[in-house]
Design brief:
Blueprint (H helix, E strand, L loop, with lengths): L1 E3 L28 H19 L2 H38 L7 E6 L5 H17 L3 E5 L7 H13 L2 E6 L8 H9 L3 E5 L18 E4 L2 H15 L6 E7 L5 H14 L5 E3 L3 E2 L4 H14 L5 E5 H14 L5 E5 L3 H8 L5 E3 L3 H16 L7 E3 L8 E3 L13
Parallel strand pairs: 1-3, 2-3, 2-4, 4-5, 5-6, 6-13, 7-8, 7-9, 7-10, 10-11, 11-12
Antiparallel strand pairs: 12-14
């Protein structure tokens, strides 16, 4: 594993070498000594039989038959050995696999670290190395575009797994990588101008992600459930970053859904971000400006901060709903401190990305559009339905 900035781990995969068959002179056979002796004995017995009477000849022929059986067994063993050697030569790869590069939108983010855990597991299973590159939440996409270009030029990698900060901005770099024969799998965020589609927008790209609209609808269902016994029900949405198109789409979709539930009063969304600190600051502002807040929802990292803000402010009875399932959020739902949660399996997600990339490199034509919600039995849960689910990442 190599972490930029820089921590290196080298673990070259073991390569099995099959010796080439030994060449023989023209007109000769590569016959084992024991097989040669058996054939000579068989010939001698046949000559003896010809010189003997009928009874003696019969006995000699029987002995010859036994020798012939031994010869047949020897021939079969030699044939099996040759077949095994040929199979080993055919299965031997033409060249060593390259490394896996994981382009993280931000290394410090727990969700991205969960995917990285899976990428490392997938790489270890394939016997190859993995490196992580830090996008540092640079939403311009310039950092990741440069990292992708440099990794492509290095020639060290045959697989890219990318969780992008700006899918449109890195598209040219991804196209260059694919043109060089690198298998590219986008995870979490689409690569291309359309942030709402599960379909790959670059030829040769594989996308393993979630439907943004489906995710919004699932979290909205939990909010409606939490508001079932309240009228009005004051709801605060701690949006990720309202300046981003994808988060603006989330806001607009939530507003449209909640318009069908008159009891829900959606407070003006605030930027909750994707960290405990930003979530706590956003919740502080909401609680200061609003006397009664009944539901708060957003990224699980932000909601962990919002819970702390509510405790500090002495605000009780708030139903917290998170997006993403770090171990702390899973525990909070199980304990009844939070109302609900949208689950994910980030480690399985990262490992799946490496596996499908390997399939593509082998020419197996894997499904280019993968909905990772299928990795979870039930995506949107509350205390009654979360069961024994365990989170795969920690905030």
């Amino acid at each position: 594993m190599t972490i930029h900035q820089p921590l290196h781990q080298t673990a070259n995969p073991e390569t099995r070498v099959v010796d080439a068959p030994v060449a023989h002179k023209e007109g000769t056979t590569n016959m084992s000594p024991s097989l040669r002796k058996l054939l000579v004995a068989l010939l001698a017995l046949v000559l003896v039989a010809a010189a003997c009477g009928s009874d003696s000849a019969t006995d000699v022929v029987d002995d010859a038959a036994d020798v012939a059986d031994d010869v047949a067994d020897q021939v079969e063993e030699v044939a099996d050995d040759v077949a095994d050697e040929v199979e080993d030569v055919v299965d031997e790869p033409d060249a060593e696999r390259g490394k896996v590069a994981y382009f993280s939108y931000a290394n410090f983010n727990g969700f991205s670290q969960g995917i990285w855990t899976g990428v490392q597991a997938g790489a270890a299973e394939a016997g190859i190395e993995a490196e992580i590159f830090d996008g540092a939440f640079d939403f311009s996409g310039e950092t990741q575009a440069q990292q992708i270009q440099n990794a492509t030029l290095s020639g060290d990698f045959d697989t890219f797994v990318i969780s992008s900060n700006n899918g449109a901005a890195i598209t040219p770099a991804v196209e260059e990588a694919i043109a060089e024969g690198i298998a590219v799998v986008a995870v979490f965020s689409p690569i291309g101008p359309d942030q709402l589609t599960l379909d790959p927008q670059v030829d040769g790209l594989i996308f393993a992600g979630q439907s943004v609209i489906g995710s919004v609808e699932g979290q909205a269902d939990l909010v409606v459930e939490a508001c079932a016994d309240r009228d009005p029900c004051n709801v605060a949405y701690l949006a990720g970053d309202p300046t981003l198109d994808i988060d603006q789409t989330r806001i607009e979709t939530f507003e449209s859904i909640f318009a069908d539930t008159p009891a829900i009063n959606l407070i003006e969304p605030v930027a909750g971000g994707y960290a405990v600190e930003s979530g706590q600051a956003a919740a502080d502002a909401v609680l200061l400006a609003n006397e009664d807040v009944h539901v708060m929802f957003g990224s699980s990292q932000a909601i962990l901060g919002a819970e702390q803000a509510a405790i500090t402010a002495g605000a009780e009875g708030i139903a917290f709903i998170g997006l993403g399932s770090p171990t702390q959020a899973v525990e909070a739902v199980k304990e009844g401190r939070w109302y609900g949660l949208q689950l994910d399996r980030t480690a399985d997600w990262g490992q799946l990305a490496v596996e499908v990339a390997g399939e593509q490199l082998a020419g197996d034509n894997p499904n280019p559009s993968i909905d990772v919600d299928a990795l979870v039995d039930l995506v949107n849960v509350n205390q009654d339905t979360i069961g024994d689910f365990e989170g795969q990442w920690t905030n």
